[in-house]
């Protein structure tokens, strides 16, 4: 079981101080994988003994085993699909996928900071700002989902990508203060990082949905949301990403309820006039 799963099982028995250790571990696995007891204690505003007690409450033999588990999970996540595909497949693929994705959703949403969530939703609800969505190849589906949902709620939503010519034109239209939502997991696509750097240089405010707090797409981001992406087969799972996107869209809808209602009504009328949808 992953550290996130162990924390979920042990949650009822954790003290407030131990919960702060859990939050630090889940939000930044590198802190435990490559840090010390003292560093993790400082980051979680606790003490060394509290960190050790936290590890034992997870059923582990102290900090050393917690650290080894974190290192193993990071190493596993870094392995490319070409390495994962060579592993012996699980016997119960559906059951393991269910367990992994339930954990991905729980870990992703439980790690969301309410102030950060509210701040990101406020940015995305501001009609004075254009919103550009930038996603890598594997995360493209999540990017399309976010663009589609936001576009139904407000105007000035742009899917950033395509040919170099199209991207250059889109970036030329970007103004300081506009928002770029970037969705990407490692291994990071170079073109996406280049485009993101140009957007930052133009004064864009970045909201990052990524797999770790030290991700290159998180650099200088106003808000960073760490997504759990553990997959059963050779590929990362984006279930946690989709869950977060749905939450963000729901937040924008709630914050912009009056304008969003008017826009949705107009869209619905247009669909009905064109007989665009089939209701069975």
Q: What are the salient characteristics of this protein?
A:
5-stranded parallel β-sheet; 14 helices; Arc Repressor Mutant, subunit A; 2 domains; 280 residues; 5 strands
Instruction: Say how many strands there are.
Output: 5
Shape: globular
CATH topology name of the largest domain, in short, is Rossmann fold
The overall pLDDT average reads 89
Number of domains as seen in the coordinates: 2
Radius of gyration: 21 Å
Briefly note the structural class of the backbone: alpha/beta
Question: Mind telling me the CATH class of the largest domain?
Answer: Alpha Beta
Contiguous runs where pLDDT drops below 50 for at least 5 residues: none
Share in β-strands: 5-15%
Would you kindly provide a written description of the structure presented here, covering whatever features stand out?
The protein has 280 residues and is an alpha/beta fold. The chain folds into 2 domains: 3-78, Arc Repressor Mutant, subunit A, CATH 1.10.10.10; 114-272, Glucose-6-phosphate isomerase like protein, domain 1 (Rossmann fold, 3-Layer(aba) Sandwich), CATH 3.40.50. 58% of the residues lie in helices and 9% in strands. It has 14 helices and 5 strands. β1, α10 and β2 (157-159) form a beta-alpha-beta unit. The longest helix is centred in the middle third of the chain and has 18 residues, at 93-110. The protein is globular.
């Amino acid at each position: 079981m992953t550290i996130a799963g162990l924390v979920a099982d042990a949650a009822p028995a954790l003290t407030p101080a131990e919960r702060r250790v859990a939050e630090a571990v889940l939000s930044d696995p590198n802190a435990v994988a490559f840090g010390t007891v003292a560093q993790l204690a400082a980051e979680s505003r606790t003490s060394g003994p509290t960190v050790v007690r936290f590890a034992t409450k997870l059923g582990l033999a102290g900090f050393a085993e917690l650290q080894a588990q974190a290192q193993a999970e990071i190493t596993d996540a870094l392995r490319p699909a070409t390495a994962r595909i060579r592993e012996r497949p699980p016997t119960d693929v559906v059951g393991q996928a269910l367990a992994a994705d339930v954990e991905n959703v729980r870990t992703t949403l439980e790690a969301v900071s309410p102030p950060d969530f509210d701040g990101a939703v406020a940015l995305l609800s501001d009609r004075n700002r254009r919103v550009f969505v930038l996603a890598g190849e594997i995360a493209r589906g999540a990017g399309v989902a976010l663009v589609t949902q936001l576009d139904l709620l407000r105007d000035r939503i742009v899917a950033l990508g395509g040919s170099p010519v199209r991207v250059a034109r889109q970036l030329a239209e970007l103004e300081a203060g506009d928002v770029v939502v970037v969705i990407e997991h490692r291994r990071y696509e170079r073109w996406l990082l280049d485009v993101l750097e140009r957007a930052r240089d133009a004064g864009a405010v970045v909201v990052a949905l990524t797999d770790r707090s030290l991700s290159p797409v998180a650099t200088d981001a106003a808000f960073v949301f760490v997504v759990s992406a553990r997959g059963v087969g050779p590929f990362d799972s984006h279930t946690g990403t989709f869950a977060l996107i749905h939450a963000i869209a729901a937040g924008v809808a709630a914050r912009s309820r009056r304008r969003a209602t008017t826009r949705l009504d107009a869209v619905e009328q247009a669909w009905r006039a064109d007989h665009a949808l089939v209701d069975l």
